[in-house]
């Protein structure tokens, strides 16, 4: 039998190797805990791009591409998911193309097809995690999509309703201790009715009699605790800032307050949005849990044609738009019915540049999908050309969300 002789390793090289390994480990730990997130914004038709360093596939821009129809594509959950709001259930609402809405898949120009995320794997890799959606009903649209997708992968009895930290609704997936919640807030900031005081004041002197008071530096109570509760946050705002039917500039204007006092001279809504974004950004970055991942979703487009929702506008298309049709409908220079989508994104770009927020850019891929709104499904009095069918395009938003989340976690 052959025998081997063990050689003694020289002591000095061994100590050097151990020292180098220890230093490398400490440096890598320091880098992981101290490096801050960065956002690389660029000015173009599609507004935003995620920092390339965050992405596993290198220089990727999922915001630009085409939709491909796939007859064999099956919805990841069905229309019986109980969390789907009745007005968004295009299959049960008998929308003519209700089933086809979810048969389109997104192929980006730079990265190829966007993969569907695996709901069971997501649950397994995000145990003991809390995810909070903070924003208006379009964020609820996305929240419901995520819930129904995750719910489809587990058996009955593994989900419990639970509304944490002032949430409007929420659920915990018990086996994995994963919680997802939706915090409803229209403006991010606190607001409410305002009426002139008998004693007078700065606003009364200017002739204001009533309106809506918006405190730019005070978070809405519905999500004030969410920033330090959730491990992952997805914010949005936008539609309510361009809503003359709610905030009539003459009869019920938005009146902005800071430090409890009215801002004089009064601000336009877009100026107020800038102030709110600056204060909310600072608040979240101060209050967020260590290591929390903070997303801000870009504006979701409306597709009213022939007028706004209360002017006979409709969205009866059954196919995605062409790139040329998108420009005609959303170009800022055309000042169309749906132009606010890109105006809002300009304000988001300015406010979030250089912050630790990750931009979740869903705008352009959604601009193409004029066919994916509930429209008149379910016998609506007015076409709903703002929210989205479920199953539908917000499923793709969540694919994009999970893709970026995986990239961030992979890097960390």
From TrEMBL:
It is a single-pass membrane protein. The keyword Methyltransferase does not apply. Residues 59-111 form the Trichome birefringence-like N-terminal domain. It is found in: Membrane. Pfam families: PC-Esterase, PMR5N. Keywords: Membrane, Signal-anchor, Transmembrane, Transmembrane helix. The chain crosses the membrane at residues 9-27. GO terms for cellular component: Golgi apparatus; membrane. Residues 114-403 form the Trichome birefringence-like C-terminal domain. GO terms for molecular function: O-acetyltransferase activity. Its main location: membrane. Belongs to the PC-esterase family. TBL subfamily. PANTHER family: PROTEIN TRICHOME BIREFRINGENCE-LIKE 13, PROTEIN TRICHOME BIREFRINGENCE-LIKE 9-RELATED. This is Trichome birefringence-like N-terminal domain-containing protein. It comes from Vicia faba (Broad bean).
């Amino acid at each position: 039998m052959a025998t081997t002789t063990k050689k003694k390793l020289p002591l000095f090289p061994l100590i050097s190797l151990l020292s180098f390994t220890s230093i490398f480990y400490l440096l890598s730990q320091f880098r992981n805990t101290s490096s801050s997130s960065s956002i690389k914004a660029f000015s173009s038709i599609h507004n935003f791009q995620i920092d390339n360093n965050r992405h596993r596939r290198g220089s990727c821009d999922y915001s630009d591409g085409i939709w491909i129809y796939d007859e064999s594509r099956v919805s990841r959950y069905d229309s019986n998911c109980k969390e789907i709001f009745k007005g968004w259930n295009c299959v049960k609402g008998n929308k003519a193309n209700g089933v086809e809405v979810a048969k389109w898949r997104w192929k980006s120009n730079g990265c190829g097809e966007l993969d569907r995320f695996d709901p069971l794997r997501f649950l397994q890799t995000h145990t003991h995690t809390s995810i909070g959606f903070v924003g208006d009903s379009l964020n609820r649209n996305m929240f419901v999509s995520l819930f129904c997708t995750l719910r489809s992968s587990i058996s009955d009895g593994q989900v419990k309703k639970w509304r944490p930290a002032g949430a409007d609704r929420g659920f915990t997936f018990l086996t994995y201790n994963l919680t997802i919640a939706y915090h409803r807030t229209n403006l991010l900031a606190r607001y409410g009715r305002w009426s002139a005081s008998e004693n007078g004041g700065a606003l009364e002197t200017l002739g204001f009699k009533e309106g809506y008071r918006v405190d730019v530096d005070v978070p809405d109570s519905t999500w004030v605790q969410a920033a330090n509760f959730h491990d992952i946050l997805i914010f949005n705002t936008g539609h309510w800032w361009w809503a003359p039917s709610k905030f009539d500039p003459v009869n019920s204007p938005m009146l902005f307050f800071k430090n409890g006092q009215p801002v004089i001279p009064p601000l336009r809504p877009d100026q107020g949005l800038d102030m709110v974004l600056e204060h909310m950004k600072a608040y979240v970055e101060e209050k967020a849990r260590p290591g929390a991942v903070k997303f801000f979703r870009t504006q979701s487009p409306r597709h009213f044609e022939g007028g706004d929702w209360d002017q006979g506008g409709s969205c009866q298309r059954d196919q995605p738009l062409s790139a040329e049709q998108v420009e005609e409908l959303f170009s800022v220079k055309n000042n169309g019915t749906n132009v606010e989508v890109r105006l809002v994104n300009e304000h988001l770009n300015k406010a979030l540049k250089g912050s630790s927020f990750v931009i979740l850019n869903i705008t352009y891929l959604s601009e193409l999908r004029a066919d994916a709104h509930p429209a008149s499904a379910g016998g609506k009095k007015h076409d709903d050309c703002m929210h989205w069918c479920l199953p539908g395009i917000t499923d793709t938003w969540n694919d994009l969300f999970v893709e970026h989340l995986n990239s961030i976690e992979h890097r960390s």
